[in-house]
Amino acid sequence: MPELPEVETIRRRLEPVLVGRRFESVEILDPRLVRPLDPLEIGLELGGELVAAVERRGKYLIVRFESERVLLIHLRMTGSLRHAPAGSLADDPHRRAVVRLDDSSDVAYRDVRRFGTWQLLEPGELDPYLRTRLGSEPLSGAFTSRALREKLHSRRAPLKAVLLDQRVVAGLGNIYVDEALWLARLHPLRPANTVDTADELSLLHRSIRRVLKAGITRQGATLRDYSTPDGGSGGMQHEFKVYGRDGEPCERCGTPIEKTRAGGRGTWYCPRCQLREP
Ligand SMILES: [Zn+2]
């Protein structure tokens, strides 16, 4: 599912095609996307809006309009966006919305599992909405190893589960947490509050940033549903050190990668490099 690097890749591709463009018409094809609101009404409300900026916060894509309203998109499990000349995309049973822009191009939203959401927020509603849901942005200056310590030291839950909590670090998901923990040599099931030495915290902090930056450089990871807005694939899946690689040798020590569960999610780690006991 799309995590920070995938959403950031989408943002970077959409920004130049959306900013300065007007939404000529918007068709919401699946009421689940905007429920409990009326899809026809939301489509009409979005029509005529002029795009001022395309931003990202955690895994949210933020389309800001000149009117100061915001379209807040969350792709959840399988959402993706395509940009193409109007009417040029093949029919797609999983298409859930289409935005026609004033330069005769379309932005089409596809979502197989249908967990994604589009929310139209009024001026002033975005900040309070995100504040309660998201911790610091891991690639910003606000995310320091000290800030990370503040988030971990009161939590006894497994480290992996805590890092998946969007209020701890915004934008991490199953893939990049496993990769960061391998890089930092930390066991995913270690209680979060036991990661408390300056060295461990600093290494974890750096590892999180490193895997996210690598993911952005590779334009995300394409496992099944994710694609870039021009229909291309990401390349990060070729760089995974542990994710999905059970039985394969660890690149550092040769020990077979193992799979377990943490935070309710399939979790991969090296049993030799990532010891349960510090
Ligand atoms: Zn290893």
Describe this structure in words.
With about 280 residues, the protein is α+β, with helices and mostly antiparallel strands. It is about 25% helix and about 20% strand. Strands 1-6-7-5 form a four-stranded antiparallel β-sheet. Strands 2-3-4-8 form a four-stranded antiparallel β-sheet, covered by helices on one side. A two-stranded antiparallel ribbon has the order 9-10. Strand 3 and strand 4 (about 70-75) form a beta hairpin. Helix 6 (about 175-185) crosses helix 7. The two termini are about 30 Å apart. Bound molecules: zinc ion.
Structural class: alpha+beta
Biggest β-sheet description: 4 strands, antiparallel
The portion of residues forming beta strands comes to 15-25%
Mean pLDDT across all residues, rounded?
96
User: What ligand species are in this complex?
Assistant: zinc ion
Q: What is the 3D shape?
A: globular
User: Any idea what the radius of gyration is?
Assistant: 20 Å
List SSEs in N-to-C order: HEHEEEEEEEHHHHHEE
The residue fraction in helices comes out at 25-40%
Structural topology:
Blueprint: H1 4-18, E1 23-28, H2 39-46, E2 51-57, E3 60-65, E4 70-74, E5 79-85, E6 95-101, E7 105-111, E8 117-121, H3 126-131, H4 145-152, H5 159-164, H6 174-183, H7 198-217, E9 258-262, E10 265-269
Antiparallel strand pairs: 1-6, 2-3, 3-4, 4-8, 5-7, 6-7, 9-10
Helix pairs in contact: 1-7, 4-7, 6-7
Bound molecules: zinc ion.
